Fold this protein.
Amino acid sequence: MNFKDSIADSSERSPAFWLGKVHQGDCIELMDQMPAESVDLIVTSPPYNIKNSTGNGLKNGSGGKWPQAELIKGYAGHDDAMPHEAYVDWQRNCLQAMMRILSEDGAIFYNHKWRVQGGLLQDRADIVEGFPVRQIIIWQRNGGINFNPGYFLPTYEVIYLIAKPEFRLAPKANAQGDVWRIQQEMNNPHPAPFPLALAEKCVESTTANVVLDPFIGSGTTAIAAKLAGRNWIGIDNSHAYCELARQRIKDIDKMLL
């Protein structure tokens, strides 16, 4: 079912309201306004809630490991320091809202980061438990920043491929494997930017027509969708990030003329 078909007999807003726009607001509230099974692919990376860490990787000052990191300040409109249980509930509610609007042959590429908390690995299983996780993709970055004598330097993040029953990859996409070596984004004012090459890999490995990012940030998923000739929808709660995303998308539009 495509977006236009799903909304034809619905009292929901028209396709023109959603497609090709960055919408500011709470992502769950906005996704709840969208028709069921109306999106083919979701590519997203939520805030990681890393400022509540038991470690010192983001502490500012002489004891910190990353004193110049932008995430010390949190995100615009979000301090990234929720109580763990509240954060897990929030992310599970986000995933539930995503699943409702995902087509029966759709999938979610949900990027997150494992970390050590209180000396033990926190693998985010409490967030994705019960959701149809089909695979874990490893995003191998170039180096890392969180040096700790208790464990080896973390140099990767994970992408949970959460798939509806009929989801299939695009032809030959399965040959690329499940470890993706992609450099971090270096020239982006967002404090935790999603690399364009990573978003492109997610989008281009599917045949999705409508691509959503409910945490659009600086607009990278939308840009990847545009470059692949797909329709896109972006959501973010931050006015500043919505404006940043819109400007970056405009810049891409100019390049594509």
About this structure: The domain at 3-8+15-256 is CATH 3.40.50.150 (Rossmann fold). The longest strand covers residues 102-112. Helices lie at 3-7, 15-18, 27-31, 84-101, 125-128, 196-204, 220-227, 239-256. The CA atoms of residues 219 and 248 lie 7 Å apart.
